[in-house]
């Protein structure tokens, strides 16, 4: 991975994702999670203050050891009971039908095989479970898409694998076998 990807990118992610305007989106999505919850791409834990008391257990999954160690440093006593797993959402190390909600915020853009990650989400969710997500994606305007397509090859190298032009929302909307129930907020 190298020093930039391992040490610098996590610091940049934490800085960028702390933006106050993003908190408004977090507050509309994250409190809806309850029961046994899996957050994929938990990062430095910026969603943690937004979970409600209905969360019995939170499992945070992320491939970055640096972000997970930042999260551990930011833990507060009033946060939900937490288990952290270093790993990828493309191979979630949990049993089938074992969680009540999966939360993901601005993460599907960075997962190399997002469709595989969504199949994994579907596998671990109980039949009554919910996927709660916030994502950005491919713009409807052709001129913006042009810029997204041209910037993505460079941006994903400096931005932790983030694809500016990924058609994330269509993955949710059009394959209901992958996401039987979902809430969508885009930026
Ligand atoms: C833009 S950050 C968002 C972090 C956090 N969700 C938030 O809202 O602040 C993208 C996150 O996706 C994580 N990520 C990248 N590849 C992943 C993968 N294969 N599986 C799970 N998470 C991944 C990154 O480590 C990072 O924490």
CATH architecture classification: 3-Layer(aba) Sandwich
CATH class: Alpha Beta
Q: Evaluate the radius of gyration.
A: 16 Å
Low-pLDDT runs of 5+ residues are 180-187
Which class of secondary structure composition applies to the elements? Answer: alpha/beta
Q: What is the number of domains?
A: 1
Proportion of β residues? 15-25%
Query: Order of strands across the biggest sheet?
Result: 3-2-1-4-5-6
- The CATH superfamily appears as Vaccinia Virus protein VP39
Short account of what is shown:
The chain is α/β, with parallel strands linked by helices and 187 residues long. It has helices at 2-17, 20-29, 65-73, 114-124, 142-158, 168-174, and strands at residues 35-40, 55-62, 82-86, 99-105, 125-135, 182-186. It has one domain (3-186): Rossmann fold, CATH 3.40.50.150.
Notes on the structure:
- The protein is of the alpha/beta class.
- It has a single domain, classed as Vaccinia Virus protein VP39 (Rossmann fold, 3-Layer(aba) Sandwich), CATH 3.40.50.
- It is built from six helices and six strands.
- Strands 3-2-1-4-5-6 form a six-stranded parallel β-sheet.
- Helix 3 (65-73) links the parallel strand 2 and strand 3 (82-86).
- The protein starts with a helix and ends with a strand.
- Residues 180-187 have low confidence and may be disordered.
- Residues 13, 17, 40-41, 43, 46-47, 61-64, 67, 88-90, 105-107, 110-111, 160-161 line the site of S-adenosylmethionine.
